[in-house]
Amino acid sequence: MTEYSHDDAELVNQPVGYWTWAANKTLTAYVRGRLAAVGITQPQWWVLHQVLHSEAGVTRDEVISAQQGNLDVGAGLAPDIDLLVERELLVLDTAGRLRITAEGRVLHGRAAETQRTSRAQVHTGVPDEEYLIALKVLQRMMCNAGGDVARPR
Known about the structure:
plasmid, MarR family transcriptional regulator, WH-like_DNA-bd_sf, 2 strands, mainly alpha, WH_DNA-bd_sf
């Protein structure tokens, strides 16, 4: 059973900004640690995943543009892309498009399994109905604060 930081009367007065920051920090560290154990960073996982799911391959600019919203990575992905090419997990074809290699597919598969197990662990004891409510509440609060919850590109 989860032991909460405060009783309900106190918890309802806690700042959502603190708890969303703390959750982000904790969950990001958890996911990144699990991915590191299979030899890939989270930004590299995003790149491999995007390239894998593009039949025609993607340009560096397309990858960077598509990932702009992922934890403010954007242009910072260039070194990760270079490293994936250097590790021969991606190749750059003559048209300047990135394509995943057989070795990249193997690593992607290991990372995908790690992501599935990580999600299952993090969601233990959290029914889908509660998860959905939590996300909708956060999105409503974001809108109330003038934020944008439009679907990422």
